[in-house]
Each structure stands twice: as C-alpha cells, then as structure tokens.
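Quick note —
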Amino acid sequence: MRKASRNRSTKRVGPGARFNARGPRALLFAVLLVTASRVPPTVEAESSATGEYEVKAAFLFHFAQFVEWPPEAFKEADSPLTYCTVGEDAFRGALDESVKGKRIGNRLLRVRHLGEQEPIDGCQVLFIAGVHKMRQTDELATVRGRPVLTVGETEQFVQDGGIIGFLLVEKKVRFEINLESAEKSGLKISAKLLALAKTVVGSSRGN
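Predicted structure written out below.
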C-alpha cells in the first residue's frame, strides 16, 4: 500500500495569527523575512535614498505579518490593514508598490499618505520619516496607547516611545524594537520578529 502523503500546506500568517513552525521551516521563514521581498536588508543598501526606502518598504510589509492587533484596531472583521505615512512620501511610491494587491489573512493592504493637518485615524501602521523629526513628538503623543504600530528612522525613535526604529549599521538596514511601547499600545509582537531585531528595549529576550 502506498503511504498517505503528508499535509505540506503552511498556515498563513497575519494579524491575530501566530507562526508556530519549528526547525528548518521556521529557519526558512526567518530567512524570507530578512531577505524582504528579494531586497536583502542585511547586505549593503544602495547609496541612493531610493534603494534604502525600497528595503524599508519591504520590511514594513513583513513587519505586519508578525504583529497581532486587538479587534478594536479595525472597524470591521475584514477592514483593510492600513499603512500611513506622514507628510511627503519618503518612499516615492515604493511602499505602495510593496503592498499592492497583497493581503495578510483576510485583510487587504493599503497605503495612505497623510497631509500636514490630516488626522491619524484608521491607521494600523504609522511611518514617520526622519525629515519629519520636528513632528515626531506630537505624532507619537497622538497615537500613544492606541493600537498603532509606529515605525520611524530617527536615531532615538524607540527611546522616544516609538515601537520599531530603523537603523543604518555599516550601510545595512537594521531595526530595533521597543516592546514596552508595543504592549502599551495593545500590540503583540511575535518572538520571531524580536529575534531578528538588533536591539529590544523594554524587556529581556529571555522573557
């Protein structure tokens, strides 16, 4: 008799889901994360800002796969997961292209570029570019305690209360995480993502 074939389907990862694979499959998934849609963030980024932001856009797409939002973060069970940027689009369309037509779980991904006076409502991920450093304090204060994943790129972003901060280390794009800020916002960050961070602030990796 022919042995029954194993079920090789993989569980889709998204908000409200956890990645429980072990062994080689888990390692492969981690590799897929750091390669960030064919743009390896742990190799030297291109000298142009465009190349750097393509890498960061890919990271942003993958970050959402490792974060769990509370139900109240969305208006409806199938509401889109929305990435918001503040002011001028630092990505020059790279973020829009990175998430175009993609879903995480049952949620379609979309991008909104907020104007100077536009309120931060309906955003699950908020990116604050370095050029908007003067507004950073106000924006972080506005979303403090709300289920919004704040991502920035200033040197002290996570120390100032942001959740994920991009770093350039020897021309390599890395990131650090403020776990305490995430918890205060009601967000749960997967241990898989914490393991890939350069630094985790607010909690020891052993917890």
